[in-house]
């Protein structure tokens, strides 16, 4: 009876070990808000692994949330941009089986408008 119990425990350990070893990626999740806490939809999020050249692009959703999943563990450069706001750059470390969480407040950028007037002399 004792041998059967030990055998069952060993089989259970062997059966679950490959499932744990299959995790090979991590992710980056977060939320974009303005300075006053309003969620920012439509923020373009570019993730780049400068060593391997891997690039991924995502957009923040209606509530300012974004997810970039299935990233190999590495150091990434995150660049976020939205018209009317200053671009944000952050370094992010992605670890195996974990989600790096970033909550970013974006600052209003300078607006530049050009008015060109053309006239002919009569």
Keywords for this structure?
16% helix, 42% strand, 4-stranded antiparallel β-sheet, elongated, 122 residues, 1 helix, alpha+beta, 3-stranded mixed β-sheet
**Radius of gyration, rounded?**
24 Å
Spatial strand arrangement across the major sheet = 3-2-5-6
Task: Tell me what portion of residues adopts beta-strand conformation.
Answer: 35-45%
Give the integer mean of the pLDDT values. Answer: 85
Query: Helix/strand/pairing class, anyone?
Result: alpha+beta
N→C terminal distance: 110 Å
Largest sheet: 4 strands, antiparallel
Order of helices and strands: HEEEEEEE
Number of strands: 7
Shape: elongated
Please give the share of residues in helix. 10-25%
Would you kindly provide a written description of the structure presented here, covering whatever features stand out?
This protein has one helix at 2-21; strands spanning 26-34, 44-49, 54-59, 65-71, 74-81, 88-94, 99-106. The protein is an alpha+beta fold and 122 residues long. The strands form two sheets. It has a four-stranded antiparallel sheet with strand order 3-2-5-6, with no helix packed on it. A three-stranded mixed sheet has the order 4-1-7, with no helix packed on it.
Map the helices and strands.
Blueprint: H1 2-21, E1 26-34, E2 44-49, E3 54-59, E4 65-71, E5 74-81, E6 88-94, E7 99-106
Parallel strand pairs: 1-7
Antiparallel strand pairs: 1-4, 2-3, 2-5, 5-6
């Amino acid at each position: 009876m004792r041998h059967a119990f030990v055998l069952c425990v060993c089989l259970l350990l062997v059966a679950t070990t490959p499932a744990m070893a299959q995790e090979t990626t991590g992710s980056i999740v977060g939320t974009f808000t303005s300075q006053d806490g309003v969620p920012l939809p439509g923020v373009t999020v570019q993730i780049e692994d400068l060593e391997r050249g891997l690039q991924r692009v995502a957009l923040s959703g209606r509530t300012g949330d974004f997810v970039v999943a299935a990233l190999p563990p590495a150091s990434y450069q995150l660049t976020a941009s939205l018209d009317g706001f200053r671009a944000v750059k952050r370094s992010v470390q992605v670890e195996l089986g974990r989600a790096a969480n970033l909550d970013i407040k974006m600052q209003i950028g300078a607006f530049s408008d050009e008015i060109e007037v053309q006239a002919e002399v009569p």
